[in-house]
Amino acid sequence: MQLLTIGAFARLSRLSPKALRLYDELGLLRPARVDGASGYRFYSPDQLERARLVAWLRRVGMPLAKIAEVCDLPAPAAAGAVSDFLTLLEADLSERKGLALSLIAYLSGSETAMPAPHLTIRYAAASDIGRERDRNQDSAYAGPRLLAVADGLGPGGDAASESVIEALRPLESAESPGDLLNALSDAVSAATSSLRSRSESDPEFAGSGSTLTAMLWSGAQLALVHIGDTRAYLLRDGGLFQITHDHSVVQSLIDAGRLTPEEAVSHPQRSLLLRALGAGDDGRPDVSLHDAVAGDRYLLCSDGLTSVVPVAVIRETLNEPESAPGEVVQRLIELANAAGGPDNIACVVADVTGAA
Ligand code: MG
């Protein structure tokens, strides 16, 4: 078969020669032949289909590591992977849209111009010691405006997670917080300062800290604050989406392509955190603003659930028809304990409902 030069192949595949060289280095698209003397790359016409797929997936905005995975899948599975990616893009866009809309309203001085939909939440929270620990360092809280889980670490981990949630509770009764994100961020800063000052004055507390995943509602929007490896998930139209990103060593290895999510589950350092409140140097939480949509269900949970109960089982449990938040919380805790309950377990489930 007649091989094509890199220039000819680039024109036909709509990829630049520079991109082709990069994809070769990454193992995404290897040339059919490389001339030993000149180093010139040659491609087979048979490779055009893969090259075009790569080009299209790049235009969709898929990261290269993900493209490499998708290209090796049979067509129906690849279609599924692209569809999953689209769902992620849509969730990301709707998050940015929420932030952009609130910024537009703020900048044009018309915060009250848009009528807020009358949404409320039904909620439940619980934490459980599990089967192997002698102390429960997880805390969970749910109220009409605030949802939170915290997983304490260090010698005073139980007090740390409780005090973080305690610092957020005034948000529940505060007058309508005009700026949800700032209200939540300020409360988190207050929690951090109190953890730090206690660590300085009490040697037995030194090195203690806590993760935090919390949501504050306004009826139309919700602000999310997150640090550590507690998580928030959104169940929408039957699909389950993790909307927080773990600040853990294993997650950073997954992001760098050095570990697969399957390998991460049994990784010996899976509980090592890169960020937490009060412990270490980096206490910056991630913050984001989301639109509240009637019918959505949120799950906030600690790693005592996600490290032993597969995501597919969590999704199935959240999807149970007619299941009230309280039943789901109990069921998830039972599942974690049935899987050995090696760690404390904290769960919060909240349903967004229409007009109250
Ligand atoms: Mg834990």
Keywords:
Multidrug-efflux Transporter Regulator, Chain: A, Domain 2; 42% helix; six-stranded antiparallel sheet; 356 residues; alpha+beta; Phosphatase 2c, domain 1; elongated; 13 helices; binds magnesium ion
Describe the structure.
The protein has about 350 residues and is of the alpha+beta class. It folds into 3 domains: about 60 residues, Multidrug-efflux Transporter Regulator, Chain: A, Domain 2 (Orthogonal Bundle); about 40 residues; about 230 residues, Phosphatase 2c, domain 1, CATH 3.60.40. It is about 40% helix and about 20% strand. The protein contains 13 helices and 14 strands. Strands 5, 6, 7, 8, 9 and 12 form a 6-stranded antiparallel β-sheet that branches. Strand 10 and strand 11 form a beta hairpin. Helix 3 crosses helix 4 and helix 6 packs antiparallel against helix 8. The longest helix is centred in the first third of the chain and has 33 residues. The protein starts with a strand and ends with a strand. It binds magnesium ion. The site of magnesium ion has 6 residues, from helix 11.
Bin the strand percentage: 15-25%
| Head-to-tail CA distance between termini | 70 Å
CATH architecture of the largest domain: 4-Layer Sandwich
Spatial shape: elongated
What structural class results from the helix and strand content? alpha+beta
Number of beta-strand segments: 14
Uncertain stretches of 5 or more adjacent residues: none
What value does the average pLDDT take?
88
The CATH superfamily of the largest domain is: PPM-type phosphatase domain
How many alpha or pi helices?
Answer: 13
CATH topology heading of the largest domain: Phosphatase 2c, domain 1
Order of helices and strands: EHHEEHHHEEEHHHEEEEEHHEEHHHE
Cα radius of gyration in angstroms: 24 Å
Instruction: Enumerate the distinct ligands.
Output: magnesium ion
- In total, the number of domains comes to 3
